[in-house]
Amino acid sequence: MYDLKLLIAVTTSCCAIGRDGQNIYITGPDCPGLRILDISGNRLTLIEHDDLFSLRGLHVAPDSQVFVCGTGSPTVMQLDREQSRLVKVVDGEIGLSSPRCVVLSNRTSCLIIGQEATHTILVFRVYLK
């Protein structure tokens, strides 16, 4: 049996645990950006970006890279290493329209993005610097 205690309740679209087990990442309809909590549920920060709306997709890659996307904007962003800002990775200039989910495959070095409006999947080769 488990002894459970409610720490926080928010409406979410996605949540993920950081690879180090210390942070919880949350996106949702009542959250205007990427919310970061500590493992106890304490709010650490909210990171917003003017080009990102209706956040739905969230992925924490094996090497701790955090990606987010929103159906309201043709943009996929990555959280910087300092966890202080979101950096644009892919946008509408290459055919992205309404990203719903995003996954980085380290095995194939591909960023895979599912689109809601067109019901299509885009796959991009990622060249790490």
Automatic annotation (TrEMBL):
Q: What is this protein called?
A: Uncharacterized protein
| InterPro entries the record matches | WD40/YVTN_repeat-like_dom_sf
Q: Which organism is it from?
A: Dreissena polymorpha (Zebra mussel)
